[in-house]
């Protein structure tokens, strides 16, 4: 014989699956990563005692100021992220909760992902060298550029590498520095023709840049809105779409004349 449940008993019985589901969600690993501002490096200086940019086959110039590439740091691809971690970090300005596939779009394990990121870095360095030499009308057969930056992967330093090579070889084209003595930071991919591409994580990178003394941040134009979302006080955003546009903006700031775009 079946007995009829009272209303409180029925509610309690129905609530059991919901409670079980919430408990499972709280402790089960979720397909997300948590990112935060990472390190920055001055590409026209040294990193761990070694020059980031070394040029042979052409005279180089002494530079002032800094051109800092920026990074983010994310939880590893095999990290176990739970609901509590997401709740703790969701509303923090210095954290970003991102789908794991957006941070690690390829590879099945840590070694595969590291190899992919280093391959992207090497390709980015090659494109940066080609873009810089093409911009300066120099022959790659005569001028050799070596780029070395430890423990950084991916293509997002391409723009800053390119600007660093140009500053080392030619500065602003008339004896001055591209930086104008400032600490300039930024991010963006580069191709051999000087086109700048989006990278992601710019809101965190602006925080890393300001933390390390930058007052100007070069950002791919398509990511202006993201960069403005958590923009630190005292950091000026300069949108770029091409290498020429980036150089022109820096020269205009350095000389104090000419228009400089803003987000």
From TrEMBL:
Keyword Cytoplasm set for record: no
Keywords of the record: Signal
Q: Name one GO biological process term.
A: proteolysis
Gene Ontology MF term list: ATP-dependent peptidase activity; serine-type endopeptidase activity
- Quote the Gene3D superfamilies the UniProt record gives: 3.30.230.10
Q: Which SUPFAM superfamilies would you find in this protein's record?
A: Ribosomal protein S5 domain 2-like
Signal sequence range: 1-28
- The organism's superkingdom is given as Bacteria
Q: Which chain positions lie within coiled-coil regions?
A: none
Protein name, entry field: PDZ domain-containing protein
Q: Which organism is it from?
A: Streptomyces griseochromogenes
């Amino acid at each position: 014989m079946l007995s009829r449940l009272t209303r409180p008993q029925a509610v309690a019985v129905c609530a059991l699956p919901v409670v079980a589901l919430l408990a499972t969600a709280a402790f089960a690993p979720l397909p997300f990563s948590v990112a935060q501002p990472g390190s920055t490096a001055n590409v026209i200086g040294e990193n761990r005692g070694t020059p980031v940019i070394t040029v042979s086959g052409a005279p180089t110039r002494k530079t002032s100021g800094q051109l800092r590439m920026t990074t983010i740091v994310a939880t590893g691809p095999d990290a176990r992220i739970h609901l509590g971690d997401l709740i703790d970090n969701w509303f923090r300005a210095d954290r970003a909760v991102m789908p794991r596939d957006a941070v690690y779009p390829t590879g099945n394990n840590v070694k595969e992902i590291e190899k992919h990121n280093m391959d992207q870095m090497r390709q980015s360095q090659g494109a940066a060298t080609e873009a810089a030499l093409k911009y300066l009308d120099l022959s790659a057969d005569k001028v050799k550029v070596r780029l070395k930056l430890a423990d950084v992967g991916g293509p997002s330093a391409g723009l800053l590498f390119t600007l660093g090579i140009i500053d080392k070889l030619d500065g602003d084209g008339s004896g001055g520095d591209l930086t104008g003595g400032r600490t300039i930071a930024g991010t963006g991919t580069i191709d051999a023709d000087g086109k700048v591409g989006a990278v992601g994580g710019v809101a965190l990178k602006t925080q890393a840049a300001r933390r390390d003394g930058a007052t100007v941040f070069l950002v791919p134009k398509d990511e202006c809105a993201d960069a403005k979302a958590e923009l630190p006080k005292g950091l000026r955003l300069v949108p770029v779409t091409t290498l020429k546009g980036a150089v022109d903006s820096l020269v205009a700031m350095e000389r104090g004349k000419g228009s400089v775009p803003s987000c």
